[in-house]
Amino acid sequence: MTAVSEVVLPITFESLGLAAPILEAIKAAGYTEPTPVQARAVPEAIKGRDLLVSSQTGSGKTAAFMLPALQKLMVQHETPGRGPRILVLTPTRELAVQVTKAADTYGRNMRVKTLSVVGGMPYPLQNRMLKNGVDILVATPGRMLDQMNSGRIDLSRLQFLVLDEADRMLDMGFKDDLEAILAKVPKTRQTMLFSATIEPSIVRLASSFLHDPLRIAVDTAQTRHVNIEQRLHFADDMGHKNRLLESILGQPDMLQAIVFTSTKRHADQLAQDLHGKGHSAAAMHGDMHQGARNRTLQALRRGGLKVLVATDVAARGIDVQGISHVINYDLPMQAEDYVHRIGRTGRAGRNGIAISFASSRDSHLVRDIERLTTQKIEVSVIEGLEPKMRTFSKPATRNTRPGGGKSSYGKPGGGNSGAPGRREGFSGYAKRDGRPAARSPARTSPYPK
Ligand code: ADP
Ligand code: MG
Q: Which ligand has an atom closest to residue 343 CA?
């Protein structure tokens, strides 16, 4: 504990302006204090402001919008009707399901009707549920627009709109759908836009659809994932990658892992191979039916499944606290995806390990990632599995980086971010398991400062 954390008064949920039924539900969820993004966004949202929020994955953004949304529902709407008062748009079905669950969790002491409208769900059921009326609608843009166009969603009562993971929605090509939806929601509604990174495309979206937004940046992609140890293994070829993977999966600190591949086919194949080697492994990608995806996610959540082999889109937003490792079997083409991927571990303030395999051709990908995160990824070697390849940058000794990243690992509030108070806040809100990170035999950085 640093002196800073001792003098800073803790921010409580009670001080955020939330009604008693919501506070009770938060307590029942086991949350003792708001995360930084919640502490900053909730009171402003309750005041009625539009918000443009960037905060790292796993920082508790769902509650940051769901709590003020529920607070709105504490007051009855002036006009009766069946249309939603709250609309949350998310990039994927999995995320929509998680947001819906959060609404049920935080709204458990209120009479709130929540419905998710996502692709892959049979229309008749969806139509029936919409007819029954809904308070909180959680939707993916495509199906939402579909249902709007067929006149099944009355948006006249809409008061609160949330764009969750807006950067992902744009990346996934939902721009036109989003604009078509936003053009039809009442101008008087309040809007919250969430994005891991605030890029020009997000700023454009915000400036056309948000009214005088307050900008809240808590932890962006550019800040360190302090609780996630990042490592890079050079790999000669697929055989080498497979041996590295096998070794990592056998390490004692391995609880559950998500392994990322670049293609759906390879995800299937690798999952099968791992299964053949006796690991409880399964694949998850966009070609799978919703039912199978849900079952896989359930198994992961319950701990029955140890290794999930996934593609980027399928793994978006997965929130499973037992994930100790994220392994990039293939590096992502987009640096932003790296940030999203590693955010699948280190959930709710726990520690996590993110390991990337890099082939000799991946130097530009590594560089893009390091540029985006402004962090160097340390090179790691497993004894007996050293690469034969000439690594793409000349190795430096481990002392070359002043204030080197790993020195601050596991010591939140340390390091060199210049924001120790904020860091303390983030790390302090949830349980840490205190498990020391496994150290690899050799650690050097290939990047001279
Ligand atoms: P994000 O959307 O920022 O990636 P989530 O909203 O999915 O993050 O939250 C990540 C995890 O943290 C979830 O498991 C959630 O239940 C947990 N969480 C959220 N807020 C708190 C809190 N105040 N205290 C403890 N855990 C929390
Ligand atoms: Mg989220």
A: 1
